[in-house]
Each structure stands twice: as structure tokens, then as C-alpha cells.
Amino acid sequence: MGAAAEPPREVVTYVERERIPSVQVEELVVVGEPLPTTVEVRPVPQHVQYSYAVVNDQRVIVDRQTRKIVKIVD
């Protein structure tokens, strides 16, 4: 756990720059939990293991295979 789970800085920077609409969900948005299947995730170019979305006005980076949130971008 710890540093190994942290996405590379360029992934975070990419997600911070992208402008996509926020999706509202009832579920809690927390690291380690999967996003609901109703949320469309978008791929991060050149980083095939990561996708991202904006949920409840929070930018989240998720594992592309499991949809689990690995980071919430401040």
C-alpha cells in the first residue's frame, strides 16, 4: 500500500487540467471504493491502468480494471 498505490504526477496533472462535467451520485466517493457503473470514466492517455471522472464535483482517478478510486484530486 502507500506510495505504490499513488498514481504518477503526470496522471494527476492531466486530470487536474481536463474539463468535463460533474456527475452526481448518492454513493460516498472514497478512496478504495469502486465508482458506480452509472459513472462514465475516461481513459488517461499513455497510462492504460488509470481512468478518471468528476463525481459530486470531485476529480477522481480510478483503476481502469476495477473502477476503484485510487486518488481524489484536491
What's the gist of this structure?
The protein is α+β, with helices and mostly antiparallel strands and 74 residues long. Helix content is 12%, strand content 26%.
List the secondary-structure elements in sequence, H or E: HEEEE
Strand percent estimate: 25-35%
Q: What is the rounded Rg?
A: 11 Å
Largest sheet: 4 strands, antiparallel
Low-confidence stretches: none
Secondary structure category:
alpha+beta
Number of helices: 1
Instruction: Tell me roughly what share of residues is in helical segments.
Output: 10-25%
In round numbers, the mean pLDDT is 92
Strand order of the largest sheet: 1-2-3-4
Number of strands: 4
The total number of structural domains is 1
Q: What coarse outline follows from CA principal-axis ratios?
A: globular
- End-to-end C-alpha gap: 20 Å
Textual characterization of the structure:
It is a single chain. The chain has 1 helix and 4 strands; from the N terminus they run αββββ. By secondary structure, the chain is an alpha+beta fold. The chain has one domain (2-73). Strands 1-2-3-4 form a 4-stranded antiparallel beta sheet, with helices on one face. A hairpin with a 5-residue loop joins strand 3 (58-63) and strand 4 (69-73). It is globular. The model has no long low-confidence stretch (mean pLDDT 92).
